[in-house]
Amino acid sequence: MPRNQEVIRQWKVLHVLEASRHGAGIDALADDLDVTTRTIRRDLAALQEAGFPLYDERDEDGHVSWRLDGQVLKGLETGFTLAELCAMYLSRNLLEAVAGSPFQRDLALAFARIEKMLSPRMRQFLDRLPGVLVAKSGPQARGSESAEDLVARLLEATLHFRVATMRYHSVSSAREKDYLIHPYRLVFAQGALYLLGFVPEYQSVRTFAVDRILSVSLEKQTFSPQEPIGDEVFANSLGVNTGPAARVDIAFERTVVPYVLARVWHPSQEVRDEGDGTIVLTMHVCHDWALRSWILSWGPYARVVAPAALATAVHQDLQAASDRYRKA
User: Which of 18, 121, 183, 241 could covalently link to 157 via disulfide, CB atoms 3.0 to 4.6 Å apart?
Assistant: First the structure.
């Protein structure tokens, strides 16, 4: 049996015992995990050796139940159960994969505190599990030495409704520009941090990439939010756009249909089976670059059916790419 499978099973045993108010017998654990009682006895012994406070208790009828001491964390005032604390410790590799550089230091300090709550043997046991659950970090914005201070000022502005003056490098216009802005919210999405703020000059809420903010200074005056922002900030986009949603129909060839159906790409999606192995995926999303790049990522296996303007735009992108290869 692979070593990783053994560790995962022992983690399940630990979780079952903590969830059970009256404990669990070896036979019940064996049936629940579909293994022999001998295997469960070895698992219990391994967990005890790792430092987990397990004990057995015999009732009046002579039945033996195993329990996990729920008072092991008493006095730490964490508000977490042992299993929850262990789960947080195990989530390090997942959180580190998505954490932006401004939060990296705080995240490391938080996990250092959790480590102190666990015994060395517990940590040694738990450190074997990340080998089973691995996360690959996606593209992240480049950090800077002043990123933490900049984010701190933005948080101050959003929490206390402080007007801010910001110098920003715009990629679309290829120049730097000064903005007077009412910072509404900071959002972490797709490996980067974004600021949503109301710009009085444009009388609208704009999205700014924090890694392209060159400087921020807080003004003395405060502001009252002009436009409410819902919890789902980029709900209409496959990327980080706040524009309106519109219908799009995309036909997929049978080669990629299993991959398309394997995920929910957007909550609004609907799938129509064409009866010949192909499908048409319908979504109501922003017709932005995030959508176009997603369509292009499917190569020759996807085709925009509607609207015509989007189909033309994607066709032009493909034609431009083809021309670059032809020239090369």
Answer: 183
